[in-house]
Amino acid sequence: MSFTNNDQVFHTISQQELAEIIAYALRKDHGYHGSSVKQIACMTGLNPRAVRNWYEARNIPSLLGLLRLAQCSPTLMKSILELSGYADISAHIKFNAVSNAKNIYGDNSVTVNVTLGRNIFLKLNPRQLWFYGRLQKGLSLKAEDIAGIWDVSIRTAKRDIAELGDLGLIKFSGASKNGRYVPV
Q1: Out of 106, 112, 158, 164, which residue is the most buried by the measure of CB atoms under 10 Å away?
Q2: Is 0.85 topped by the overall pTM?
Q3: What DSSP assignment string belongs to 20-50?
Q4: Which residues pair with 182 in a beta bridge?
Q5: Claim to verify: residue 76 and residue 31 sit in the same structural domain
Q6: Residues 73, 159 within the same domain
Q7: How many domains would you assign to the chain?
Q8: Nearest to 26 by CA among 92, 88, 76
Q9: Is 24 exposed, middle or buried (0-12, 13-18, 19+ CB in 10 A)?
Q10: Consecutive sets of 10 residues in the chain, 184 residues long: mean pLDDT of each?
C-alpha cells in the first residue's frame, strides 16, 4: 500500500522492518556492548526491558518512546526523516548538529538543560551544567560519566563535581559504594 502526497510516494513498511531499522540505528550510535541498553535507558528515562526489546528488534516503541530514542540517536532521527520523505532535511540537520558539536565538544554531542540562578550559572563550566542538569532529571551519574562524555580525565571530572558540592548545589547521598549525587 502506498500514499501519494505532493508528488511523493510513501511506501508503508512492516512493523518488523521498522523494528530492524530502530535496532540498527541504536546499535550504530551506541555500539553492541552489553551496557548499551542500560545507557540508552538512562539517557531517555525509559524502561530498560523495553529498550532491550527495541535494541534487539523484537518490537517497536510507542510514539513517545520513539521520540525519546530519536533524541539520543542521530541515526534514528535521520532514518525517521528519510522514511517520512525528508531525506534532504536530514542531511542538513545532521551536518549542522555534527559540525557544531565537534567544534565545541569534540566528537560527542551533549544537551545541557538546567535550572539555576544567573549568578551561579555563570560560575559553572559546560561539564558542570550538563552534570547538574542530568541530576535534576533524577539520573544517577558518576565522575566516569563526565570523563567519558566530555573526554576529560577522571581527576578533572572529580574536580568539577567537588566544585558543585562547594557551591552547595549537590551532595553525596548514601553509602560510599552504592551512593549517588543528588541536587540540594
Answers
A1: 164
A2: no
A3: HHHHHHHHHHH-S-TTHHHHHHHHHT--HHH
A4: 171
A5: yes
A6: no
A7: 2
A8: 76
A9: middle
A10: 50 85 88 82 88 91 91 86 79 47 45 75 86 87 86 92 93 88 90
